[in-house]
Amino acid sequence: xxxxxxxxxxxxxxxxxxxxxxxxxxxxxxxxxxxxxxxxxxxxxxxxxxxxxxxxxxxxxxxxxxxxxxxxxxxxxxxxxxxxxxxxxxxxxxxxxxxxxxxxxxxxxxxxxxxxxxxxx
Length: 121
What we know:
two-stranded antiparallel ribbon, alpha+beta, disordered C terminus, globular
């Protein structure tokens, strides 16, 4: 759940920076209900994604020096044991039965490609 909360904070921070309505770091941290230290950490995370973030002292706002888009999508759906379970946001799980007998107790097989990690029972 920390990861989801962190992504939500990054999305909110990004939105305020895009609008150039952040205020000072202290004001922004209060607005996001986080500490100033965590705010700086979130800004560094955005910079790790190559966000061109600058701060204008005269306007008291963070802004992007160039185009930067952040799209955060969180989608979790859990289905019954016999159906596919998808977790988007980093991993793709696909439990399947390989034959008609109860093969769920067998050791999982791992298959990975560039887009997904699939765990087959």
